[in-house]
Amino acid sequence: MNCNPGIQRLKADSFYVLSACLKACPDTNRPVRILLTSLKMLEPSTPVQYVKGIGPRLAEVLAAKGIATVDDLLHYLPFRYEDRLNPRSVAELRAGEMATVIAEVRNSGLFRTRRMPIFQLTVGQGRTKLKCIWFNAAYLQDRFQAGQMLALYGKVEEDRDGQLQIMQPQFEILGDINEEGGADEAEKKAAASLEIGRIVPIYESTGQGKLTPRWFRRIIRWTLENLNPNLPDPIPAAVRVHLSLVSPREAWWKVHWPDAGESFSDLQSSRTAAHIRLIFDELFFIELGLELKRREQKAQTGITFRLDGGVREAIKKILPFHPTAAQKQVLKEIATDMQTPCPMRRLLQGDVGSGKTIVAFQAAIIAIENGYQVALMAPTEILAQQHYFSARQILERAGYRIVLLTGSLEQDRKRDVRRHIAQGNAQLVIGTHALIQDRVEFENLGLVVVDEQHRFGVMQRLKLMKKTEDARVVTGLRPVLPGEDARRSTDCEPDVLVMTATPIPRTLALTLYGDLDVSVLDELPPGRTPVVTRSVPDERAPEVWDFVRKQISAGHQAYVVYPVIEENEERELKAAQQMHRQLREKIFPNLHVGLLHGRLDGDEKERVMREFQQGKIEILVATTVIEVGVDVPNATVMVIEHADRFGLAQLHQLRGRIGRGAAKSYCVLMRGAKVSEEGERRLDAMVRSNDGFQIAELDLELRGPGEFFGTKQAGIPSFRVANIIRDRQLLEAAKREAAFVISGPNAEISKEEIDRALREMRSRWALSYGLVEVG
Ligand code: ADP
Ligand code: MG
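# adenosine-5'-diphosphate complex -> structure
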């Protein structure tokens, strides 16, 4: 490839290039060689101001976009491509499509309507003509001259007379050398040749429109031409072969400047060999980090729990029902982890109602029977209370000592409970995650169960894992002081089981929880009939209340859920209270209508929950505090007010509160007059599907990964080229290959290659993710 347009031109820049390379190569032992090579090449780590055409000021503009190095600049991928090699003829255009057209300016004019000025431009190809319209575009008035060639891109529509026009097209005046600034004639020509007769990359403009697609084309092209031609490839050769990966250099060239023969649809969907290389590259080093972390965890010393006949007997004894095959399988996976000497780090996924709690209790018994304490943490107080009820029913009867520790306990009581925990009297401690924050001291903690993990967020999980790993706080595993007895727990990590009811699509679990082992409860307990879900407009509320009344006279109970969105908590809480009053006084005067929301104090919450559980309260008006974990099988109806305002995952969680017994259950989604298009899609999905995995996938699509996981600000790895929804298969491949690399060296992969890959991984984790130190 023509590496360089000539040393002459480089001379003017040689100072920059040289200093860039000195910075990039800490190996200053051989300055002469650096000087010679540096005249020719940029390295990925070279700061962008050493790219020709980028001075300190533009470097600042780019820095604001996160572009600081050549590598960052190369990662600024075209967001689309224009086929200016085989442009469409106007005659081929169809209304409704997005199209690129190359045509000649004929005439233009500005029309002032009452509402806004409209700029209209007519372009032509031979005899065919096409109208282009821009609203509010007086600024375009003097932009065009007849005879100029334009590349236009936009939506084709039909006007009132059935003529085709393009609305608000993006455009480039081809060969508009004025934009090129001080370059000489030959260069202007060369630059112009980049714009036509090929597939042209279109970059998002930035810097308030100052850095145009055309500017990026020129700059990135120059960067590529001056890039070190022998870029090392940090991905081991065997992996490259497994996936037929092209070299980094080829990937960079072709992603920015695709070959003429490249499939256009592959380009637009990021499926060219060049795209795949770059996407895989990004995913591979993330997975490599997670894989290594996982190995390291495995290498730590944990507790080796015994699982003899006595323990097995104890586990069986508590079971109030026959476990499902899935529950048995998952318990086996957990028990196996617990019996091995390295600490368990396992994620248990299971749709709402799949029966995670009992599995957690069984795991707890293994730990307790081995003489250890267990902490079970829930994201809300109500859920903690709920678990406490069930634990007492199921475990206390078998003689285990259980305590509840929540923020709303009275000080004295709290102190008592803490003492029980510290002395090791309490065998199972149930609480909110304040358990960690409050530095509760355990005498001998062996197992931590975190329920409904999605509510904690990914960052919290990492912190939590870190804390249990550091473990000095939560577990009371103090370093042994001189003269002190080494307790048996002192040198061991507790096991950790994380349970989530948001069924994360498996591939995503691999990225986000790649450091955990995953178990899945993919079966509901027998005898459940799927919940019937309907979406109903508000006007039909009277019918809905009639239906509720019927269900209650048949001996069942109902929830009425009212959304309280945090930002307007105060106001909406009032609305929920009002609703409660109206239902109690006007609509169901003869029934017991209770109210449950997050602001009630602990005792009150407990009382309401208890009365609902015992059937004394027939209708429970609640905010989303009941979203997780609440378990009252006799409740068969749930009416969700303003259902369109809830997220999909949340609706599914809410609905999971019913359909827990044998009787048929009904979920009614009430909606107001105006529902957004996305709201409609959510309601529609709920009506159609009861499958948490399906719903989670759709939710993910609708909201995007950032919001889905609630991690927008939480610093989850944000991807530069990969899109974990689109690129699932590559993600799986990256995971597989990362495991393969770490299991080396072997015949396929050398130690040097592995070390190189690990070095690259560490520098990337440090730079981009900065959240977990690895290795
Ligand atoms: P989740 O996975 O949503 O936490 P729970 O553990 O609360 O689900 O279980 C939901 C309901 O199913 C509870 O009432 C529980 O007692 C019941 N359950 C769990 N496992 C079984 C089983 N194997 N057979 C019958 N009922 C079960
Ligand atoms: Mg649960």
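# post-check
The pocket of adenosine-5'-diphosphate (ligand 1) is lined by residues 321-324, 327, 350, 352-358, 501, 525, 629, 631, 633, 660 (CB under 6 Å).
The chain has a mean pLDDT of 82.
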